[in-house]
Amino acid sequence: MASLSRFIPEPKTAAIVGCPFSGGQPKAGVDEGPIRIVEAGIIPQLEDLGWKVKFDGHHEFENISASLTSDPPIGKLKNPRLVSQVTEAVAKAVGAHAQNGELPVTIGGDHSLAMGTISGTLSHYPNACVVWVDAHADINTVETTDSGNIHGMPVSFLLGIGSKVPEFSWVKPLLKPDSIVYIGLRDVDAGEKQILREHNIKAFSMHEVDRYGIGKVVEMALDHVNPKRDRPIHLSFDVDALDPSVAPSTGTPVRGGLTFREGHYICEAVYETGLLVALDLMEVNPSLKDPVDVEQTVAVGCSLLRSALGETLL
After folding, report:
1. Cα–Cα nearest to 217, from 207, 229, 230
2. Which among 134, 192, 208, 243 is annotated as catalytic?
3. Ordered domains of the chain (ranges, CATH)
């Protein structure tokens, strides 16, 4: 089943990068997401699809936390040193897997981690493009953020926009505005809307999904960032892109999101290109909602990962 891949050599290996991290936002519990997804059997599920799966245990960020005696805000930014050091460690891990010819599957944790995962991908595949599936644009800058929660800011760091924060000097602005495309947006701050317009960043909100249907939206998104279908793709999927009726256990749910099938279709279509080189699944928070909702959200998370790695309906 796991045939199709232009960049990942046989025998194809998926490297699970478990990131139990919640420092980019205020709600506890999102650090449990990767643990629950692994416990739910994602490793044998991917092996059943023909992947070799490498998993050496979840990343231990405790040593980073322990080494930080204090982490006062920088401007509005909360936990800046912790987030910087953790995302830098993640960048190194993801970059090393990419270097080895493996496909890193990063399970978060909060979406600030994408600062690390995408940096890691770009360190090995400098011409990679990013398909970012999310209710939120996560492109606030130091100037535009209201909350100071860094999970709402990773894209601005990756693009190098907004004023520089010395603590994040390790993040090289390797991502170009025409190399990222959004699908599923529906809760975008005023400052973020302005940034998307100013930098001419392509975004397909739920309005376009309603208008054109998900098949056409994915095609248009790929036409934008990958017109010749020859660039490696990094898929970064925040479960809050899905409607809360589909994935309730997440920190910032927004009504009117992608259906179960729309979310899966994006993953299936990206896999079908044969260009996927890295995959993130972020913001599953098993401490929010009741056990039934949690189980449903964890199951959906596993199912999205399987779809992105080649599971088909027939």
Report:
1. 207
2. 134
3. 13-308 (3.40.800.10)
